[in-house]
Structures are given as C-alpha cells and as structure tokens.
Amino acid sequence: MKKEKDYIYEVQKEISLLGGILSLMGWDEKTHMPHNAVQERSQQMTILEKQIYDKLVSTRLNRALNKLKKRKQSNKDTLVINELSKQIKKIKKIPKEFIEEMTKATVMGGRTWEIAREKNKFRIFKPKLKALVELKQKEAKLLDPKKKPYDVLLDQFEEGMTSEKLTKTEVEKIKKSSTQFIRFMVEHIQRKRGRKVEKAKIRVKHGNRYGEVLLLGDIAFIIHDIDNEQKEISKANIKPDGSLATTEKSNLIELEKALSKVEFPPKVFIKEPIFEDLKRLFGKDVEVLVNF
C-alpha cells in the first residue's frame, strides 16, 4: 500500500507544479509577453495541459487509487484520493483534442481581446468570443448533458453550487470579484501606456488621503481616494478654459474604456481654473503633488 500511496502523492505534486507553471505563463502572457509570441505560447500551454491529462488518465494512477479505496485511510489520504478521483472522473469525459482546442482558443482569444480593446473595436474580438462561448457550452454538455450549462460550469468554481442556490451574499461576492477584475484591467492599461498616462495625471493630497484627476482628451476622471479598495470615481467634461464642468458619478468600466481609446498628445497642459476645481472636489486643504 505504501508504494501506491507514495505514487499518488508524487502525481498530485507533479500536477500541482504543472498547474503553477501554467498560471505563471498566463500571467506572463498578460504582462510581458511580446505580441508575436502568442502562437508559440498557446503551443507551450497546450503541451502542459496534455501532460496533466495524461497523468490523470494513466492506468497506473487509476489502479493505485482503486487499490487504496479498498482499505481504510487517514483523513488526509482520503481527501487526496477523493480529489484525484473527482479530477479523473471529469477529465475522462473530455477528449484530449478538446483540451488542446480550448487552450489554444483561450490564449489566442486573450491576445485578440487586448488588440480590440486598444483599438476600441469590439468587432475584432467578437468572432473569438463567440468561439469561446461555444466551446464552454460544448464542455458543459460533455461533463453533464442533463444539467444547465451554467450550473455545470459554476460547479467548477463552487462545488455543489447552482444558479438556484445563489444567495444575496454570494451575488455580492461575484460583483466584488468582477470589480477586482476591472480594477486589474485599468491598472494593466495604465502600466502598459506608462509615461503617457502619468503625463495626463494630477495627483493630490487632501487630509490623509490621496486622489487623482486623469485628463483624457475632453473629459476628466476623478478618483477621490486611490487607496480605497472600493473606488469612488466621478467624471466631468473639460471646458475650453480648462475648468471642469459639473461632475457626475462614473465607474471603473467607463474609466477603462476611456483609457483604452484615448490618444495622448505629446504634451498635456493644465490651465488656472482647474486649481479652483481641485478645491471644490477635494476641499480647501488640497495639495498638488509634484514628482510623485
């Protein structure tokens, strides 16, 4: 029994390490990877996904698990055996070719989305999005043709959960997760466009808080407290004299769209009236930060 137990732990560790490599490659793809490397990256990630597949469906692993199930095990060993068994049950329903197709479509789709966002042309991404949705629907049918596709896919993230069981708290949790994703996208665009964004930004200190005003063409976005996780954002049109019109509530989605499509001029100028607007927005104690 020790031989089988050592083997399943060895496989579990290898699968975990391969998953970690995939996560690292996914992060690199979204932050540093050159645009023209996407095809090779999709091939690299496909190879790793197929290695995980082969390890899970191997005869040796299945025999070891079946043998261990016949004897009483410790709580820890039982958890590992059950988890591997679940992964195997799921993976056996999905053809290896489908995993290859899904991995390539996800990587290529991600790169196409970045191009579409930069050019503010959704039609570039639309075919890729349609293909990805169809693949996820196909995956749901392969896993459980009797259940709603949404419930099948939801179970992968929250085991046992269905659309009918979602509580108000869980809906709020989903909303929070989506907000965190949008915040990541905004920060990613700011990093990518680097100095251009910095030149269009006024950072201020008011009391113990810090705020920002981003001058994006003919509209300004105001972030009232940059350190607050739940960003309060407003926007205002920039008048010909450089002052700000009446502010109205905005959000991270609008800011992300504006950042993705704005064309930054070589130099950004601010006019005197905006300093009065800063007092109106942040209070009389507002201080403009220089070389932050």
Rg (C-alpha, Å): 25 Å
Give the number of domains.
Answer: 2
Q: Poorly predicted ranges (pLDDT <50, ≥5 residues)? A: none
The helix-and-strand class reads alpha+beta
Content of β-strand = 5-15%
**Amino-to-carboxy terminus distance:** 62 Å
Number of DSSP-assigned strands? 6
Number of helices: 10
Strand order of the largest sheet: 5-4-3-2-1-6
Shape: elongated
Biggest β-sheet description: 6 strands, antiparallel
**Average pLDDT reading:** 83
Assign a percent range to the helix content.
55-70%
Task: Write down the secondary-structure element order.
Answer: HHHHHHHHEEEEEHHE
What's the structural blueprint in terms of helices and strands?
Blueprint: H1 2-31, H2 38-57, H3 59-69, H4 75-91, H5 96-119, H6 122-143, H7 149-157, H8 168-199, E1 201-206, E2 209-216, E3 219-223, E4 233-237, E5 248-249, H9 252-261, H10 273-282, E6 287-288
Helix pairs in contact: 1-2, 1-3, 1-4, 2-5, 3-4, 5-6, 6-7, 8-9
Q: What descriptors fit this protein?
A:
292 residues, alpha+beta, 2 domains, 10 helices
Question: How would you sum up this structure, described in words?
Answer:
The mean pLDDT is 83. This protein folds into 2 domains: 2-166; 194-288, no CATH class. Strand 1 (201-206) and strand 2 (209-216) form a beta hairpin. With 292 residues, it is α+β, with helices and mostly antiparallel strands. A 6-stranded antiparallel beta sheet has the order 5-4-3-2-1-6. The protein contains 10 helices and 6 strands, in the order ααααααααβββββααβ. The chain is elongated. It starts with a helix and ends with a strand. The longest helix is centred in the middle third of the chain and has 32 residues, at 168-199. The protein has helices spanning 2-31, 38-57, 59-69, 75-91, 96-119, 122-143, 149-157, 168-199, 252-261, 273-282, and strands spanning 201-206, 209-216, 219-223, 233-237, 248-249, 287-288.
